[in-house]
């Protein structure tokens, strides 16, 4: 990484900043959920689809992707666009699974025709994607999945069920893992693109502890998928899935997925400002050394996370290409959870007030955010699975499985 | 001015760090240390132990220009920045090397911040091969920079400085002394008339520490506003020791991860078990956080002084907490062998206990950082 920005980088950054300033959308009537995976409301969907499409047209999404796949054909500019989007505190991109998982997977494993067909509407959010990996009996032990795909002529007949499917009720396509060989655990899984709007697919919402929906059960009954919607070879699904999950874990450069509008810095700064304002025992909470210590520790960990990303770009200091990127999801989700836990403690009895209560601080966002933080620590490979991966891939310890 | 994305860590720094690492590995400082303390009745004490160090290696380090790394070129030094000094300090910590290097580098930044002709003269002496350390603290070990028990009247020092690092290894001192309501900085040779040295019995075998008593000692004032000078240099003081701790914590991480692969119990390498694997990963998470904050703090001092204090306090806070966790888990996960005198884990563990509290632990650092938030 160059010590200072090139003229091209600087100009692009200034362009992004100015565009975002000028095109910031008006707030929705009903506040948006905290993250893209909680979107259920139709009005929110339209609003967010329009917003993502606009950002895509402006070149903030798929910035570094080839023009033949609907990208903007630049190189090394996506990172700048994404950091400016985060900085501008504008709405997130609804098609986060499309951008964060489907696009990187298709770019790495898709055929020319698949890439040209599926990628442009991912970028513009005209087609929303969801992910069909987890099953009732296959969570952390993903490879034990049972949904079957049986070949019949040029088609595959799929039967089974998927669970925890975020955006399933809005999605046009699903990234589907199905078993094509019962006798070969790892090489018996195949990766498909499954349409969500055809007979045999039933989507049933699941309500979370927050009272929100946003994720679903998906039942697949004799669903017909043409063979040209298979990604990579028959039996290569596990290998392809691992590369998808790597994208989810933040290791891929990505095409501009932003699933939540607030940076961790913004969250801790908001919390510190609240501590300086709120009174407890006749003085601001910030004047209490115990609370100050907790808040500064959080600030330190958030700063460290950001400096980690900076150090990941310095070859001689990063300890190997994957060491820091593979920590991203674990760090981000656990720090986020701890931040909300501290916030609730700081609120004291006001922590009991939930979204919609007129007296709730910040409309109950801290209680809601605390509960939603478990999405981060459980989904996409739980924190325990992340620690297995780090211990095995980075530190060379023996495989737990 | 925007900070450089790469912390200012360029090719020059990479080469320096690489050669420092190979140098430390080559010297095998812990084998040398064990030779000195082997067979002694009380390895914790004595003028040649634990302050003993490889004097030949130190001469080589001086010849390589490392002791004068951060001395400005005008004073005969190499003229490099804090990021470069931190890169070497990290390697010192990784090797747990007994050496006056870190103390000398810290002294350089205090002399630089003093920015007087007298201070420049002492910088010149470092360029010529002298080593130095800081004598700042009173008996109760408060971390405030104006708590010296030494007084100065008409250029004469009286009283005692406590917790002076590397006292058995260095040539000269920078002393904080109270004069009326102010603190001034003085510099003098350890061999000056009226200077009495006493050595502490300390936990850490790789360092030495002591007390310096001044009996009407003549010394040269190098900074009239000593507290401000020390405060200006504080980010460098803290970041250098935090870098040393980052290196030592990484050593413990690697040693523990390796041990978890070779030690077999219940018919499997213990790293198979998540009760072992996961805490080792937690060591890595913390060690990486510290390392990133250390380079960020060094870069802030070099390029964005307005943010340097906050960054340095956060780096030392992180370093102290990381050190405590890594030393704790390394000893626990090595089982009985890590608890023995023969194993090197104990050497790192004790070096980190010392470093964790030096200049203030995590709680103290966060209290300081809060003033900048």
UniProtKB/TrEMBL annotation, chain A:
Among SUPFAM superfamilies, the record links this protein to: Acyl-CoA dehydrogenase C-terminal domain-like, Acyl-CoA dehydrogenase NM domain-like
List, for all copies, the residue spans of the domain called Acyl-CoA dehydrogenase/oxidase N-terminal: 7-124
- Alphabetical list of InterPro entries matching this protein: Acyl-CoA_Oxase/DH_mid-dom (IPR006091), Acyl-CoA_Oxase/DH_mid-dom_sf (IPR046373), AcylCo_DH-like_C (IPR036250), AcylCo_DH/oxidase_C (IPR009075), AcylCoA_DH/ox_N (IPR013786), AcylCoA_DH/ox_N_sf (IPR037069), AcylCoA_DH/oxidase_NM_dom_sf (IPR009100), Mycobact_Acyl-CoA_DH (IPR052161)
Domain Acyl-CoA dehydrogenase/oxidase C-terminal residues, every copy:
235-395
Bilayer-crossing residues are none
Instruction: Identify the keywords attached in UniProt to this record, alphabetized.
Output: FAD, Flavoprotein, Oxidoreductase
Domain annotation Acyl-CoA oxidase/dehydrogenase middle: ranges: 130-223
What cofactor requirement does the entry state? FAD
Q: Can you tell me which family this protein belongs to?
A: Belongs to the acyl-CoA dehydrogenase family.
PANTHER family, A to Z: ACYL-COA DEHYDROGENASE (PTHR43292), ACYL-COA DEHYDROGENASE FADE34 (PTHR43292:SF4)
Q: What is this protein called?
A: Acyl-CoA dehydrogenase
Organism listed in the record: Candidatus Litorirhabdus singularis
TrEMBL record, chain B:
Q: Does the keyword Oxidoreductase apply?
A: yes
Q: Which domain of life is it from?
A: Bacteria
Q: Which family does it belong to?
A: Belongs to the acyl-CoA dehydrogenase family.
Span of domain Acyl-CoA dehydrogenase/oxidase C-terminal: 225-351
Q: Which Pfam families match?
A: Acyl-CoA_dh_1 (PF00441), Acyl-CoA_dh_N (PF02771)
Tell me the protein's name.
Acyl-CoA dehydrogenase
List residues of the Acyl-CoA dehydrogenase/oxidase N-terminal domain: 11-129
Write down the PANTHER family for this protein, in alphabetical order.
Answer: ACYL-COA DEHYDROGENASE, ACYL-COA DEHYDROGENASE FADE28
Q: Which InterPro entries match?
A: AcylCo_DH-like_C, AcylCo_DH/oxidase_C, AcylCoA_DH/ox_N, AcylCoA_DH/ox_N_sf, AcylCoA_DH/oxidase_NM_dom_sf
**Coiled coil location:** none
Q: What is the lineage of its organism?
A: Bacteria, Pseudomonadati, Pseudomonadota, Gammaproteobacteria, Cellvibrionales
Q: Which Gene3D superfamilies match?
A: Acyl-CoA dehydrogenase/oxidase, N-terminal domain, Butyryl-CoA Dehydrogenase, subunit A, domain 3
List the transmembrane segments.
none
Tell me the cofactors it needs.
Answer: FAD
What are the record keywords, sorted? FAD, Flavoprotein, Oxidoreductase
